Amino acid sequence: HQLSKTVVNENLLVLSSLRTPLGMEYQHGLLDLFPSAFTMLDMLKMSDVKLVIHSPTHGQLLQSLGVPSTQLLEIPIRSYDEQKLLCVSPGRSLKLWRTGQDGGGELPTLDYSDRRVYADFWWRLLGYRLVPEISETLAAVAGWEEASGFVRPDTVVFLQRCTERRRLANEQEALAAVSSALVGSKRDFELLTFCPGREDFVEQLRKVRRARLIIGEHGGAMANMLVARNGTGVIELVGSPGAQVGLKGDFPPYKSFWYGGAGAAFSFYRVVLYEARDHGLTARVEDLQETVKQWLGTM
Asked: What is the pTM of this model?
């Protein structure tokens, strides 16, 4: 197979975790680029090494962490089948970052080109362990003037789907159930709802960082929880086995960020199922309301 070759006269850093399904640059940038790059911030700020990225979105995300644009090299990947051979000029170095284990040994992995959903996702365990540090760094770089902890009233963020793909038919009913549980607690809450895909990503992250509880359907919007503050709770709406029929992938037993290691970062993390009904995908509203009450009981 003849590969397209790119020769660069720079010292480069390549992250093995950088996988970018087309059209999902934002969410996979947060999940698969943000944490790995975060561990290399000092190198990127204090050396001439450039980090390889694949899209302008990656660049915007990394600059929000304080990585100078001069330390980024974009090598566009425009199709699933596109493959490139990246080389550096003589005298230059190319460093490969990948997740390892104590003692320097490599973790079990599948071939890099293997696209199965469970292929070599070890770095996501690292990612969620860094949630508090990433969140604090982002706030400092953005210059947000914040209190040191959560402020009153406590904010509950409900991330709306706002797309026809896997949209919940009873999303408004689910939102009303959350509101009813909060009102019934007789405490002061702000219930904030928005469509993440329709806002600037920095504004998305700022709102999620305010949240004491994040609720949303599994998908790209929920990747925003990577910048949640320490102590934030998460309720993720996930599809039952019946709701996954016809979808590509292996979901054991449902598709959730929990299986990517998210549970390591959140003291309260629950999933609530939605099911396939005649009128569309439908969340178990009573289960959702009960789960919100469980979270209220932890406060």
From this structure: 0.83
